[in-house]
Structures are given as C-alpha cells and as structure tokens.
Write a structure and sequence with these properties.
The N terminus is likely disordered. 15% of the residues lie in helices and 34% in strands. α1 packs across α6 and α4 runs parallel beside α9. By secondary structure, the chain is α+β, with helices and mostly antiparallel strands. The chain has 12 helices and 50 strands.
Length: 850
C-alpha cells in the first residue's frame, strides 16, 4: 500500500510579509522565480499544517470605534452609533487616500468599525512602511491562523445518551431554556437541515466566501468531506429532540452562525479547515451589529468563538481590542482556552483570543463516567510478552479487535527519544501502512502519533515513558488508536523482531471502565497565563466526548450524531449556560455575565493555571449578587524587595437589595512573603451601584515558588462569596529575544527583485518545569549609518510568537528612497510582554551598499 508522504508542519499562526525597503522574502524563491512571501516558522512543534496569509496585516487606527466611544459616553442613540460608524470608516478612507496619493493602492478584505477601528488587507512592503509612519495608525499586526478547537469522534447512532453517561454536560436552570437569547457562533458553517437543529439556526453570514448563507461547505477537493465543527457546537448550544432525549444546553435559544472558518488553501496546496484572525475580528464586528446598519443596539447577547490561535495568548492587539469592544457593546465573548495541553507554570499553551482580558476563556474537564481502555497483547513467537488493558491516549478507539504486524520508524535515536521519525522508505512508500507502529515516546509523542497515522498505521504503541489517559492533543488527522506499554515489554518485542522471530500485536475493541479522571482537567486542555500575567483560562467546563449533531446523513437517511472533544466544546457549554442566565436575568450586561459565570466557580484542588476560578457552577451564578471587572487578575513579575503592584477592580451590586461587602485577598497555600492591602476592605453598595477597589501586593522576599496564585474574595453578607483569581510570578526569564540574526549578503547592490535576506529568530522557549513561551510584544528594526547616525525605522512588528522571521533588504531606506553606497547597520530591539518596563533584547548586523 502506498501512502503519500505528508509534511507534519509546525505551528502556523501566520505567514508574514514585512516591509524592509521595497520587498520581503522568505528563505528561498518559488518556482516562478519571484520572491516568496516572508514566512514565520514556529519554534513550537505542532501538528497543524502551515497556512498562508497572503501578506495580510491588520491595521489598527487611533480613531475610536463605536465600542470605545460608547464606553466613554455610557449611552448613545441609534443615530449616534451610526454616526460613529461613519466616522470610523471615514478615518480608514483617509488613510487609504493618503496611501493612494503616494502611489500605493490598498484593497481591504475587511473593514472594522464597531469593535475596533481599522482594516485588514494584503499589504506590500511599501504600504507597510508608509503606514508605520502615519500618525493615524496605532499599530500593524500579523494575521494568524485559527483552528477549530475540538475534534469529533466516531458516530453515535447506537450509543447511549443517558444523562448519567457523561456524554452530555449536566447544566441547566429549571424553567429556562435560553428562549429569546441569540448566540453568535463564530466557527465553520452549520448544517441547517439537521433535524436536531431545525428551527434554531438563522441563515447567518459567510465571511469566508461572502454572502448571507453560513451553511456547512464541502471540501472542493473532496466533496465527501463536510465542515463539521460548527454543526457540532450548534448542537451543544441549541440541539433538541435527539436520541434518548439528547438536547443542547440552551435548546430555546437561537444561533446566528457566522462562518469565520472553513475550507481554505493550506501552504501545501491542499484544502484545510481553518480561519484567520482578520476573519475572526470581522465576525465579532458583525456579531454586535447583525444587520450591518452601523447601529449596535441589536448586538447578540453571547458570542461563542469556536476557533483558536495556538499559543497566541496576547492581552493586547487587535483580537483583544475586538473582544473588549464586543463586551463594551454588551456581548459576552466565550472562547476556548486551546487544545495544546500541559505547559509551564507561567506563559504556557493558552491560545488566542483567550488571552484577551475581556474574553471568558474556558478549559476542558473530563465528565465521562467511564474511561475507554483496550486490551493490548504483545507476542513473540508463541510467547506472550504483555497482556494488559491499557487506557487510550487520544480520542480514537479501534472499532473491533485486530491482530497486526509490527513496524518501526526508519530513523530513531535513543530508547526514550527520537531525533527524527520517518515512516516512509526512500521511494516514498509507507513502511507502516496497516501495521502497529512501535516507537519511543520521545520529546513529542503527538508528532510521532500523527506521523504514523498519516503514513497509514493501524495503531501506535509508544514506550519509554508514561503518559496519562487523554494526554494527546486532539487533532483532526489522528486516525490510529494510541497506547503506551512498559519499556521492558517493548524492548523485548523489538529484540525478538531483530532476531528474526515472528512477532505481533493484538489490539482489542474498546472496553469502558470507571473513569478515575472524572472531574479533572483533560490532558489536552491548554493552561498557563495570558501574556499580561492574568489567570487564564477563566473557568473550566465539561469538554470530553460530548454528544452532539454531525453534518450530513447516514446511508439510510437518518441524522448523524457523534461525540466531540476539546476546549471549544467546553466553551459551548458555558456559552449555552450564559444564554440561560441572560434569559433568567435580562438586566445583566456582558461584563456582569462574565463575572457571575467566573466568580462563583468551584476551584476544588485544581491549580488556577489549569482551571482559572474553577469549574463553573451555573446554579450559584444564577443567584450571584456581586459582579467584578476584570474577572481575573495578573500582578506581573516580582522585581525585588521594594517592588509593589496595584490593580483596580470595579465591584458592582447586581442584586435587588443593598449589600454589605467585605474584601480580602487569599493566597493559595502558605506564603508569608506576600502582603496585601485592599482599599477599601469594607463597603456598602446600593442596588445597581459600583465602586472601585485597589488591591496592592508587596513581597519583601521571593518565595521558592515560581508562581503564586490566589483569589480576591468579595463576600456579601448573607450571600455567596465572589472570587477573582490572581497570579504573581517570581521568576523572570532572561532569555535573549533575538538570539540569532543573520544577513545573506554582507555587500550587495540595491535590487527590488533580488534583495539580501535578513533572518531574525525572535522570541524564545524556556524549559522550566514545563514549556515557557517567551513572545515578543514589539520588534523594531532600525537603520543606522556605520558612524552611528540614525536614519529611521525599517520595520516595527508587534505580538510575535517565537519563530524565525525573514525580511528582504532591497537597498532602500525607511521612505523607500534608494540608499547611497556605503556601510550601514541594522539594530534590532525586542521587548517582552512582561514586565512592562523591561529593557529590550538587542542585536545588530552590518551590511554594505555597493
């Protein structure tokens, strides 16, 4: 059997085009002889395929959006909001006109006016250079890819759907079903004909192809492949009348589907289901103004974002501005935390836009009553080496028992680690198709399992380390069941195979046992802090094997159902709960919904970096009397004995009675190093009134812990206590944010078609009790003469994930004027996201214009 070789790919958040002179290049030329776009090659290994951005950038203007004007004015008429929308568009038009007068024509893909003022467009390098110098421009940001944050399992036409099965979240408010509440679903298209969803889904908007039809599309390269993610999340939200009484969390609500993700070309030419950050922001801009008339009084109450930008937990930037803008327009934005699993105690694996301060980011817990296990038998000749029931590491289970031949990767190094994994021979034929792959766990078991599945492996048996059940991240292309066996058994099996003895592996059908992980955080759920140090995710909710609708129909015409895993499934349960709460208490605005759903959660014994405030409890949220904004806090990084940090929290009475409140800060565990001052620590709030609270922390000495978490407790007499989780880091990572800078030619003639290539490794990764992401909040590339005279800014990039960025040096200066012959120097400065007053990492490289 021949299976084509496929690239594993790296975390592809954006393909950047950056202005340095007149052109930008990647590492090489394409087949046409023209320069390829500048590329971003992530340093974080990931199964997602590379996605081209087509030189797209997001340009944010200083002119306030409708949301920003409303946040200041507090109230506006419909006419005022339409006027503000017009003013935002006028500011964009002025910028575009300025570009045109300078000979640069830009055609925006999207224009934003409600949640932020700006536009997204393919920008050639000269346009970027000019925009950077315009006073109207607040910043230019890369467009990143966003992927569905869950994966579906096998179809469930015959499975039990009972409430005790764990396949449905046990979330409800007696007497409320979300009726009258509209939830915007920013995801792939939805199967509008599915009986489970009939009558609950509006026609919606398609921002991928344009138009007012958000129906799930098929893959143009393979019409049998339908977009399914939007249909699955819609079922979790509003499904009704399913088998065994299955229904969504808010079956009375209405879903407005906004197609911000779907089949689009990947870098390798095949189609892939994904969205982009510019499409996501456009979705939020329409969610707050569904009819597009410039008046946001018809904004939806809840917006569920079903996609996530891997690792991009930026708290500033266009996505964060857009999320806050939606919140200011009374739309609660619920986002998945991401599906990239365990990371370090500080900046870890949280995705974007979950890092936005205004986003209600949701992690996933395991609510299953049983855990899937399979019987694994390792045989050498007639001898049985191992016969044991082992937990499955991922969502894929064998449909029936199979006896398989054994295969190994072509290249591995070391018992418990691999330097490279290749499942194809030199001619491109699969070595493992239809076989059981035996391979070391290595540093990236996810990549090994995906590579084996792509090569056609029927099962993956890892050894050389222990992995918890469900620890592999969910991924669309993982089609083979994965288990871990003891190292000794695997070594004996492989030794027998090398000796010429007939060996084999038998994998039994799935067998369910009592789930010891029930209620705990799922292994794939992203965790860590946002890049501003605030606690993320905000809360956790069930997100494992939730039963829901699947697009299309079975061969007999019956509707399809399946289960879905992922933090977007967990986010859907919280978004549905928000609809119930909004129906029950219609006076609550978006920030209050966010606070109530977060602040009354149950932390239990879980870490704040895993679950934020805890597993949300809708019953307590429904009777909550106090709301606080923000709903999570970050105190940043400790900077010495005389350091202190103050954060402001706005506390609001959302009850129907006058409240007496007492406030205090509590540290998780014991830590005498921290001292807190809450001012005021007691107050009385009338109905609907609010007050600003200042929380100051000092620490004369640093504790041993790298990260300390806790909660700000806001206790109302005679009522439940609202909790605002916080975090404080005691470890500043001194990683160089520009560790490597090279230029392809030290001396060259000016050329717009054959520039020298500047390659910059920006950001870094630090392994310290887990993977620590060290992003770059801003990278400046400055041009100087050899004598040190400053010429200008060649490029300024913001919100960069660790990776390799390439720039074309054409011999033109910041204003696109050709440089005179002579010696020059590029000086680079890269700032971290924290602390805010940190000094940048610096580097320099010299070149000469002939």
């Amino acid at each position: 059997m021949r299976v084509p070789r496929r690239s594993l790919g790296l975390l592809s958040v954006a393909i950047l085009t950056i202005a340095l002179g007149a052109t930008v290049v990647a590492r090489g030329r394409d087949g046409t002889g023209q320069q390829s776009p500048a590329s971003w090659r992530g340093l974080v290994g990931d199964p997602r395929s590379a996605v081209p951005s087509g030189q797209r950038m997001i340009v944010v203007l200083h002119t306030p959006s409708v949301a920003q004007r409303l946040a200041k004015a507090k109230y506006a008429t419909e006419a005022q909001e339409r006027s503000w929308t017009s003013q935002a568009y006028a500011a964009q038009q002025q910028v575009l006109t300025t570009l045109a007068t300078l000979g640069v024509t830009v055609h925006p893909d999207f224009s934003y006016s409600r949640v932020l003022d700006g536009f997204a467009a393919p920008l050639d390098p000269r346009a970027v250079s000019i925009l950077e110098h315009l006073p109207e421009v607040a910043g230019i940001y890369p467009v990143r890819a966003a992927f569905p944050a869950s994966v579906s399992e096998s179809l469930l036409a015959t499975k039990a759907f009972g409430p005790s099965s764990g396949h449905r979240p046990e979330i409800d408010l007696p007497g409320y079903d979300g009726r009258g509440v509209t939830i915007a679903l920013l995801d792939t298209g939805v199967d509008l004909t599915h009986p489970y969803l009939r009558g609950k889904i509006l026609p919606g908007l398609d921002l991928i192809n344009g138009g007012d039809d958000a129906t799930a599309r098929s893959n143009p390269q393979d019409p049998s492949q339908l977009e399914h993610h939007g249909t699955e999340l819609a079922g979790l939200l509003v499904g009704a009348g399913g088998p065994g009484g299955l229904h969504g969390v808010a079956p009375g609500a209405t879903v407005l589907p906004i197609r911000v993700a779907g089949w689009q070309p990947a870098a390798d030419g095949r189609n892939l289901v994904y969205g982009r950050s510019d499409q996501l922001i456009a979705g939020l801009d329409r969610a707050v103004d569904p009819n597009g008339d410039g008046d946001a009084h018809d904004a939806v109450r809840v917006a569920l974002v079903g996609v996530s930008e891997p690792y991009a937990a930026f708290a500033q930037g266009p996505e964060a501005i857009a999320v806050q803008g939606a919140l200011d327009l009374n739309t609660l934005v619920v986002t998945p935390a991401g599906n990239d699993g365990t990371a370090g105690p500080t900046f870890g694996s949280v995705a974007g836009p979950a890092g936005a301060p205004g986003a209600l980011a949701v992690g996933a817990t395991d609510s299953l009553t049983v855990q899937p296990r399979v019987r694994v038998v390792l045989r050498s000749g007639l001898d049985v080496i191992l016969d044991r029931f082992l937990p499955l590491l991922g969502p894929v289970a064998p449909a029936h028992s199979r006896t398989l031949h054994v295969a190994t990767p072509r290249s591995t190094r070391g018992l418990a680690g691999t330097s490279s994994v290749d499942f194809f021979d030199a001619k491109g034929f699969s070595l493992v198709a239809g076989r059981a792959v035996v391979a070391p766990v290595g540093a990236d078991p996810q990549a090994t399992a995906l590579a084996a599945a792509r090569a056609g492996a029927a099962a993956v048996v890892l050894y050389g380390g222990s992995l918890p059940p469900g620890s592999l991240r969910v991924a669309e292309e993982q089609t083979a069941p994965v288990v871990v066996v003891p190292t000794a058994a695997a070594v004996e099996l492989l030794a027998a195979q090398r000796a010429g003895i007939d060996v084999g592996i038998a994998i039994g059908a799935r067998r369910n046992v009592a789930n010891a992980e029930r209620g705990l955080v799922a292994g794939f759920s992203s965790r860590g802090l946002a890049f501003d140090g605030a606690v993320k995710p905000n809360v956790a909710a069930p997100g494992v094997a939730l039963a829901t609708s699947e697009p299309g129909a079975a061969t007999d015409g019956s509707p399809l159902y399946g289960t879905v895993n992922g933090t977007s499934a967990a986010a859907a349960t919280v978004a549905g709960a928000a609809a119930l709460l909004a129906q029950m208490r219609p006076a609550l605005d978006g920030p209050a919904l966010n606070s109530l759903l977060t602040g009354y959660a149950d932390r239990g014994d879980a870490s704040a970096v895993d679950v934020g405030a805890g597993t949300f409890r809708l019953g307590l949220s429904a009777v909550g009397e106090v709301a606080a904004q923000p709903s999570t806090l970050g105190f940043g990084i400790w900077e010495g004995p005389h350091w202190h940090a103050t954060r402001t929290v706005t506390v609001r009475n959302v009850s129907t009675r006058r409240l007496q409140l007492s406030l205090s800060s509590v540290v998780d565990g014991e830590s005498e190093a921290l001292k807190f001052k809450v001012v005021p620590d007691r107050l009385v709030l009338g109905i609907g009134r609010s007050a600003r609270i200042k929380v100051t922390v000092t620490a004369p000495a640093a504790p041993r812990a790298r990260l300390i978490t806790g909660v700000l407790q806001i206790a109302a007499a005679g009522s439940e206590t609202l909790r605002v989780p916080w975090a404080l880091s005691f470890r500043r990572y001194s990683a160089n944010l520009v560790p490597r800078v090279t230029i392809s030619d030290k001396s060259f003639k000016p050329s717009d078609t054959n520039p020298a290539v500047l390659t910059v490794q920006a950001g870094n990764l630090v392994r310290d009790y887990g993977l620590q992401i060290q992003p770059v909040s801003r990278l400046d590339v400055l041009l100087y003469t050899a004598t040190g005279r400053y010429i200008g800014v060649m490029a300024r990039l913001r919100n960069l994930l660790p990776g390799s960025y390439s720039f074309g040096i054409t011999g033109r200066g910041p204003t696109s004027v050709q440089l005179a012959p002579g010696s020059y120097e590029l000086r680079l400065a890269a700032w971290p996201t924290l602390p805010l007053d940190a000094k940048p990492s610096r580097a320099r490289v010299s070149f000469r214009i002939e």
